[in-house]
Amino acid sequence: MTLKLNIKNKFNVQLPADPVLENSRRQVKNACFSFVVPKRPSNPSLIHASPEMVDAIGLTSAMESKAFLDIFSGSELLPNTRPYAMCYGGHQFGNWAGQLGDGRAINLAEIEHQEKNWALQLKGAGETPYSRTADGLAVLRSSIREYLCSEAMFHLGVPTTRALSLVLSGDQVLRDVLYNGNPTFEKGAIVCRAAPSFLRFGNFEILAAQQDVKTLKKLADYTIQNHFAHLGSPSKEVYAKFFKEVTVKSMEMVIHWQRVGFVHGVMNTDNMSILGLTIDYGPYGWLEDYDHGWTPNTTDSTHKRYRYGTQPQIVLWNLLKLANALYPLIEEAEPLQSILAEYQAAVKVAYLEMMKSKLGLFTSDTEDHLFIEKLENVLQLSEIDMTIFFRKLAASNVSNTTDRLGTVSEAFYKAREIKGEIADAWKVWFSKYDQRLKKETKSTKERVAYMNSVNPKYVLRNYMAQLAIDAADKGDYSVLDDLFELLKNPYGEQPKNEKWFVKRPDWARNKIGCSMLSCSS
Questions:
Q1: pLDDT at residue 521 greater than cutoff 60
Q2: N or C: which end of the chain has fewer CB within 10 A?
Q3: What is the mean pLDDT of residues 342-361?
Q4: 3-class SS of residue 162
Q5: Which residues sit opposite 33 in a β-bridge?
Q6: In sequence order, what are the beta bridge partners of 407?
Q7: Where are the alpha helices (H) located in 161-227, listed in sequence order?
Q8: pTM, two decimal places
């Protein structure tokens, strides 16, 4: 059986390729990608596939076939295709890292189905010219996290790449989870990711750093023509418009992150999608304790550059680096500076409106920014679960109780601490909340319904993913399947799944994979 896909390759047809065909680590010049073939796994088996994504690319009837497994494990190639790895650079933790590229990702092909375009990419399918000192492989642990989170984020309404399939390679992969000199062998796995494009800020940065304006222009023109065609034919003015759209999409993405409490953990410029999609799920986490200073990344634990509270500002910093990369095409700083200034103003407004939506506030008040600021201050006085707090806050509107603090008490990790000055601060805020609600014109029912549509009840907490990983290591994929189904409806009540609407358990507080994670996660 041959998979019947509507192949529409563009990236590796319209853009310059690395002329060197051997799969050796090297610096690549004057090219956007290198041709490379996935490593054939020893004994692949399909663990899971997303029915939605299988349907989205037109392969529903083939999901259980050997041909499906062969292609999405990297064992076989699609007919008339040439897989490739992208060349890009990036700023990592604030410093220019030079050439990076797809070190463990191999793009299989681009396809078109039902008037939508998808690039299909295997993560963990072997080394590429950009693998540096690594092996290009991935382990089951990190693959489950990426697979589950990609689809969970989509159903949360967050712009994201998608996940098509999860395959066990049958090989053992050596990994040092905590970078402490104690590597162990783990099960190898391969995720097939899908997105309209996997282009990153870094694709443009590397060409600008190499002063290869000719190839930079080709890449910008390609990107505009294939993903921003509504802007018109490429020109200096259109390049500026293109940058403007990237800023808007990036802002929308990060505001969604803040809304659901998602912390990316490694917001390097090579992990920033040019389409404003959440990309590269590594040491991510959900804000359980509402702490603006929290980061899930062990590598970032000292400086906390990528902590929850700074994510909107890091997007701005990353956009500045993209602006620098695009400058050779525009040759004027003012349009780029103006767009960045607009972002600075717009993100504050967007953040305020997002927080108001979480509180069920629709009207405007000149004191709203102070009201939100006071909430954030009181939320950080003690350890409180973000997801549970906002869902219980909506419930307190329904019950019309005078004891709002009691209604949200399940969100506190240490309820005994909520006394004295902390309890008084909460009572003051709740009093002001009640006063603020009197200015609203929508009914309580409408307000609560909206609050429950923006405040998820179920998110992929790290301990939940770890439970799926621990079971999968033993060959049990039932937890993985349960979570996959649960996270399709994150805003619904799901009475049968109340066991997942709980705070992080004590055993997970400091457990590897449940609190903080490394970049190998």
A1: no
A2: N
A3: 98
A4: strand
A5: 17, 86
A6: none
A7: 201-209, 213-227
A8: 0.97
pLDDT at 13: 98
For 400-434, the pLDDT digits (tens) are 667 889 999 999 999 999 999 999 999 999 999 99
Helices (H) and strands (E) in the chain, counts: 16, 12
Q: Which two tokens stand for residue 166?
A: 């999860």
∠ CA 162-166-170 to the nearest 5 degrees?
Answer: 155
Q: Give whole-number Cα distances, 478 to 207, 459, 475, 482, in Å.
A: 45, 18, 9, 6
Average pLDDT, the chain: 95
Decide if 270 is catalytic.
yes
- Per the residue annotation, which of 270, 280, 300, 385 is the catalytic one? 270
Q: Are residues 159 and 252 in contact, defined by beta-carbon separation less than 8 angstroms? A: yes
Residue written as tokens 């804000």? 287
How long, in residues, is the chain? 521
Strand partners, 54: none
Are 300 and 178 within 8 A, CB to CB? no
CB 210 within 8 A of CB 29: yes
Strand segments (E) across 231-303:
262-263, 285-286
Check residue 489 and report its DSSP letter: S
- Using a 10 angstrom Cβ sphere, with 0-12 exposed, 13-18 middle and 19 or more buried, the burial of residue 471 is middle
> Contact 44/170 with Cβ under 8 angstroms?
yes
CA distance 217 to 225: 12
User: Per-residue b/e over 228-265, b at no fewer than 16 CB within 10 Å?
Assistant: beebeebeeebbbbbbbbbbbbbbebbbbbbbbbbbbb
Local structure of 73: helix, strand or coil: coil
